[in-house]
């Protein structure tokens, strides 16, 4: 961070690397640098480290290590899930179901499939961003090969009913005596805060991302259930069972395994701390600014405990973000990924917000280093900046 006093409230964009994670990664840059596919003994140290990381991830997901594929992050895992299933199971049909609020790394591969004659059902969500479970089941056709619904949304923190969708899908498949459609969930935002047991969730594929759980950026996992075949999107070598060719990102893999283990261990304590801090933040802010509202669900069990997405009527969200930055406070408009393009958030549009409300929305996402003192400083800075920004409007 740039200054000692900087306050980072953008943990949904990425998190700092945990010192314990950095520590376990370090030997794999310049000491154990061998290619794990090589034949000499040194390579075994490296391939052993990959196996250890795979075991750590498998333990958290309550699955077997051979169901874990390492990738370059959430984007690749989502692309691989969508395109990998679509290309492998094309003979079954050309229909996919997703929610309207998926991340672009799910939505954009679907656009390319649509050009190849696939049809995509984008399920609407309610005013809080929740997918209706019955709608998901009703949308299934004989030619549906995949359903993809995110575990938790990156902009508004809404937690989707994944286990319930999974349960009803199992019943549907049993009745129809079919293995289709498969079920994928993007758990990039959920991995730090929620239970990732794939048996309880009844998912066939799941995306996890290292850079959002205090692990290294550019590291990710795709869980693929045993017996579910997928087509690679990167071909060449035989790494990752031939599904993901290319020399492995060893420090990234080692770091991700450790990060996931640590974040899940700290989860219960950290979740309640963050939820209390979020409640304090929002209630104090609303005392000063009674007109503010939350986008998405009220703070509670179905919202990520660190996410506040706030509408400041009449205030340009981007101007507020820039003003707060000048005071050493980092936060985001609708979503970090669209910060440059400034196209209005498809998530806020899907929950029924008009373009004025969307442009007046700012996302604060708290994390491990966030303190009550930082929150108080932020509230004061917001109050001061709104006075300035509102007088600018006149
Ligand atoms: C960040 C994010 C991704 C993409 O992850 P990258 O590591 O940037 O590729 C995918 N899905 C969700 C929900 C995310 O928040």
UniProtKB/TrEMBL annotation:
Record domain Aminotransferase class V: where: 7-375
Key word Transferase present: yes
InterPro entries in alphabetical order: Aminotrans_V_dom, Cysteine_dSase, PyrdxlP-dep_Trfase, PyrdxlP-dep_Trfase_major, PyrdxlP-dep_Trfase_small
UniProt keyword annotations, A-Z: Iron, Iron-sulfur, Metal-binding, Pyridoxal phosphate, Transferase
Catalytic activity reported: (sulfur carrier)-H + L-cysteine = (sulfur carrier)-SH + L-alanine
GO molecular function, one term: iron-sulfur cluster binding
Cofactor(s) in the UniProt record: pyridoxal 5'-phosphate
Similarity annotation: Belongs to the class-V pyridoxal-phosphate-dependent aminotransferase family. NifS/IscS subfamily.
Protein's UniProt name: Aminotransferase class V domain-containing protein
Source lineage: Bacteria, Candidatus Magasanikiibacteriota
């Amino acid at each position: 961070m740039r200054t000692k006093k900087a306050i980072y409230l953008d943990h949904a964009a990425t998190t700092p690397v945990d010192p314990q994670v950095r520590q376990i990664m370090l030997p794999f840059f310049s000491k154990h640098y061998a290619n794990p596919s090589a034949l000499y003994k040194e390579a075994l140290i490296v391939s052993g480290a990959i196996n250890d990381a795979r075991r750590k991830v498998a333990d958290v997901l309550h699955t077997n290590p051979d169901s874990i594929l390492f990738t370059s992050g959430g984007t690749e895992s989502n692309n691989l899930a969508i395109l990998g299933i679509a290309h492998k199971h094309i003979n079954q049909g050309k229909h996919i179901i997703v929610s309207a609020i998926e991340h672009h790394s799910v939505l954009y591969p679907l656009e390319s499939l649509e050009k190849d004659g696939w049809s995509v059902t984008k399920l609407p969500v309610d005013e809080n961003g929740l997918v209706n479970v019955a709608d998901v089941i009703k949308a299934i056709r004989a030619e549906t090969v995949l359903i993809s619904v995110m575990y938790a949304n990156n902009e508004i923190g809404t937690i989707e009913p994944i286990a319930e969708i999974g349960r009803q899908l199992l019943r549907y498949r049993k009745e129809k005596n079919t293995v289709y459609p498969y079920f994928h969930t993007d758990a990039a935002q959920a991995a730090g805060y929620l239970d990732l047991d794939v048996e309880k969730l009844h998912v066939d594929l799941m995306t996890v991302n290292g850079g959002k759980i205090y692990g290294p950026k550019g590291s990710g996992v795709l869980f693929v259930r045993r017996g579910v075949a997928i087509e690679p999107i990167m071909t060449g070598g035989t790494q990752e069972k031939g599904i993901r060719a290319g020399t492995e990102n060893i420090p990234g893999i080692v770091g991700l395994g450790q990060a996931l283990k640590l974040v899940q261990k700290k989860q219960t304590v950290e979740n309640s701390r963050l939820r209390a801090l979020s409640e304090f933040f929002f209630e104090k802010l609303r005392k000063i600014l009674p007109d503010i509202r939350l986008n998405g669900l009220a703070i509670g069990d179905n919202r990520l405990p660190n996410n506040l997405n706030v509408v400041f009527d009449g205030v340009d969200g981007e101007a507020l973000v820039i003003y707060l930055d000048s005071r050493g406070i980092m936060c985001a408009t609708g979503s970090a990924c669209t910060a440059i393009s400034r196209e209005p958030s498809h998530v806020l549009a899907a929950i029924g917000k008009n373009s004025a409300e969307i442009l007046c929305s700012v996302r604060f996402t708290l994390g491990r280093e966030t303190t009550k003192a930082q929150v108080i400083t932020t509230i004061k800075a917001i109050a001061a900046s709104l006075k300035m920004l509102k007088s600018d409007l006149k």
